[in-house]
Design a protein that fits this description.
Number of strands: 43
Helix content: under 10%
CATH class of one domain: Mainly Beta
Radius of gyration: 26 Å
Structural class: mainly beta
Distance between the termini: 27 Å
CATH architecture of one domain: Sandwich
Shape: globular
Largest sheet: 24 strands, antiparallel, barrel
């Protein structure tokens, strides 16, 4: 149902006039400023059509937000363009409508169409929902003026997982005086505490041509976009339902593969499913059977030029669902994951090789004030890599304490490779106090873990104290990792050490300058053995400058010392003998914002290393000529010139995205490195005719391109084609 055009025009004019008023007639104290809005309940039959048009009569009854403030470029200033948001809900959905007024609609940036777009390069609206009152963890929903949708999870106010996707509807369109976005978020797509009177909410908008960010709450330049230290409050939500709370994701996958070496062909037909049941609105039980990960992207190509194993992030949907409840240790693991007690990627992947997951069960959410997470999975045998089937389990619980802090514990059991019996138990305390010393936030996170089972028991402890503000910032981190600490279901690539990190920096925001922001600081990283004998010591300083368009320039200096006690090889080829090495290294980088149709970056590092010379060049080029097409090309070159010899390492990738609509995308990843000589192509066609239904077609091809004969000697290894049909049933 639509109201008459004259009434709509009049209401829009009145809304625009109201929204165009200054954000506030009196200065705000943003240290304590906490805006609030009450969502208005509507009947299900009055629900708006989600089409990017706010003329449905229900919107005229919605709760209204029209007081937004700049965070960038000038904290607390009146935005250059007014914004008006509307909030309402029915029994099953939360509805958010946002009218982004713009006096120059032809200048609106909207160059992307794909799902999970890089919204920092666009005009956009983001909504953060903390439905548990954690002040740390959020559900994230976003759109640009094309209606391209993004969703994700914010963890602990610092980590963002864009890989998470859920079912929701959204549409946007450009109009004569700006653009409009409509969101319909099912309560079944998120978990929530039904006893909570108010949810935490943040809404913010970017106006990209000004590199301007405006927020409803948390008006503080030192706080990141997913930081929920001081959010707004969303009240009025009650008596909502998730239906029966049952969600069944059913998939059927047909695949064909061909081995170019043996001429063997293989055909498979595999059903799989994930089942989610909300035991309470705040607690979800999950089951997975014959889990299919065919839609997971390729891991970013890496070549190991150091002494320790590399870390690859989790990208699989089942493990990303409610992943925040498994977060442990807080800032202790911010800069490195070494010592992490639980890493879900170890379930179903052994030595970077996939292993079947026959079945798995997960419990995640809240029980009273406590956040709980538990997972157990049965993996299949993999004869190729000599691994038997395993039972793997992990559990995490945390409770809020004080005003903004939490106390928790973690436990894991199992070895993905089946070599030993292994368990890890740990406790952590994550302290946070905002508005410290008048303007900043103080963090103090501490964690202790112990591994036990076959072989010697050992432990790890870590502490970080950090202060963040608009001007002065500093960090002190200490970690002690025992020689025999072995989290088999976690990640540890260097044990038997003590590590001390410290940094300090100052941020500047000059007035009437081409510079938007600048920062300069110094850092140190000292590593000793458990007898406090120095092994590695690095220290340095940096300067970073950003202009108003978002282009960035950075210079770094590093003084390094390493005591190599066991020989190793760079990329497995160039030996580095035992010895003590000292060097100076320098780095220059320039990044031109991708908000333009053509974006680029280059980073050059040079200096000494391991008694010789190092040159590293990383470059990237992005093209977005039209909203339907995007290309990103990246190349890394590393040259080591050491007494033992020379080696040049190339890693190249090309990603292309063709977005026919916001719900239909063809993406292709191409990767190559000259060390493994491995060439890979992976294309994925994804179409969601409706949010509950999925058609997924993928093609993969691997080959070897021998670097000595490049580009002539190309040997195909394998090819595969897979079609997956999926449907989500909600009751």
């Amino acid at each position: 149902m639509r109201v008459a055009g004259g009434v709509v025009a009049a209401s829009v004019m009145l809304a625009g006039a109201a929204a165009a008023q200054p954000a506030s007639e009196t200065p705000r104290d943003f240290e304590t400023y906490t805006p609030r809005v009450d969502a208005v309940r509507i009947a299900e039959e009055d629900a708006p059509v989600i089409d990017g048009d706010l003329s449905d009569p229900a919107w005229s009854r919605a709760g209204v937000i029209d007081e937004f403030y700049q965070v960038e470029p000038v904290q607390g200033a009146t935005p250059s363009q007014p914004t008006r948001a509307y909030i309402m809900y029915d029994r099953k959905h939360l509805y958010v409508g946002v009218y982004c007024y713009d006096s120059e609609p032809d200048q609106i940036r909207h160059a992307q169409m794909r799902r999970d777009l890089q919204l920092r390069d666009e005009d956009g609206i983001r909504i953060l929902i903390d439905s548990f009152g954690t002040f740390r963890d959020t559900y994230y929903f976003a759109m640009n003026p094309n209606g391209a949708r993004g969703d994700g999870l914010g963890e602990n106010g610092t980590t963002f997982r864009s890989e998470w996707n859920t079912i929701w509807r959204g549409k946007a369109r450009i109009v004569d005086d700006g653009w409009i976005a409509e969101f319909a978020i099912p309560f079944q797509s998120i978990s929530f505490d039904a006893s909570l009177a108010d949810w935490n909410l943040q809404i913010f908008r970017t106006i990209r041509r000004h590199n301007e960010e405006i927020r409803w709450s948390n008006i503080d330049q030192s706080r990141g976009r997913i930081d929920m230290t001081n959010p707004g409050r969303l009240g009025g939500i009650s008596d909502i339902q998730s239906g029966l709370g049952l969600e069944v994701q059913a998939f059927v996958t047909g695949s064909a593969s061909y081995d170019h070496i043996t001429d063997d062909a293989d055909f498979e037909f595999d059903p799989s499913s994930n089942i989610f049941y909300k035991i309470t609105p705040a607690l979800t039980g999950s089951l997975t059977f014959n889990t299919d990960f065919s839609d997971a992207p390729l891991d970013s190509r890496q070549v190991n030029t150091g002494r320790f194993s590399l870390f690859f992030p989790e990208t699989r949907d089942f493990f990303l669902q409610d992943a925040a409840v498994f977060e442990f240790g807080g800032r202790v693991f911010n800069d490195t994951k070494n010592g992490l007690p639980f890493f879900s990627r170890n379930i179903g992947i052994v030595d970077n090789q996939p292993v079947d997951i026959i079945a798995g069960a997960k419990l995640s959410g809240k029980v009273g004030p406590a956040s709980v997470g538990a997972i157990s999975a049965r993996t299949g045998a993999a004869d190729v890599i000599g691994v038997d089937g395993q039972f793997l389990s992990a559990a995490r619980v945390s409770v809020p304490v004080l005003a903004e802090s939490k106390l928790g514990a973690v436990f894991t059991n199992g070895d993905p490779a089946g070599v030993v019996d292994n368990s890890v138990a740990g406790v952590d305390f994550q302290y946070k106090r905002s508005n410290m010393f008048g303007e900043g936030t103080l963090f103090a996170d501490i964690a202790y873990m112990r591994s036990f089972g076959d072989g010697p028991d050992d432990d790890m402890a870590g502490l970080e104290v950090a202060y963040r503000s608009q001007r002065w910032n500093g960090t002190l981190r200490v970690r002690d990792i025992g020689e025999d600490y072995a989290p088999r279901l976690g990640f540890a690539n260097r044990t038997g050490i003590r590590r001390y990190n410290a940094n300090f920096w100052r941020t500047y925001r000059p007035q009437n300058s081409f510079i938007r922001a600048a920062e300069t600081g110094a850092w140190t990283n000292l590593i000793t053995d458990l007898n406090d004998t120095r092994i590695d010591h690095f220290y340095g300083a940096w300067v970073e400058v950003e202009n108003h368009d978002g282009d960035e320039f950075e210079f770094n200096y590093e003084r390094g010392y390493v005591d190599i006690r066991e020989p190793f090889s760079i990329a497995g080829e160039l030996p580095v003998p035992v010895g003590e090495y000292r060097w100076n290294q320098y780095e220059l980088s320039l990044e031109l914002t991708r908000a333009r149709p053509v974006g680029a970056s280059i980073e050059v590092e040079w200096g000494g290393v391991f008694g010789g010379d190092l040159l590293e060049i990383e470059s990237s080029l992005s093209l977005r000529p039209i909203k339907y097409f995007e290309l990103i090309a990246e190349h890394e070159y590393s040259r080591f010139d050491l007494p033992a010899g020379k080696i040049g390492i190339h890693i190249a990738s090309i990603d292309t995205i063709i977005a026919f609509t916001p719900d239909m995308t063809l993406s292709t990843e191409i990767q190559y490195d000259n060390i493994s000589e491995a060439f890979a192509v992976f294309s994925r066609f994804s179409w969601e005719p409706v949010p509950e239904r999925e058609i997924f077609l993928s093609f993969g091809h691997s080959a070897v391109i021998e670097r000595e004969n490049f580009p002539r000697d190309y040997r195909a290894l394998s090819s595969g084609l897979s079609l997956r049909l999926g449907h989500t049933f909600r009751l």
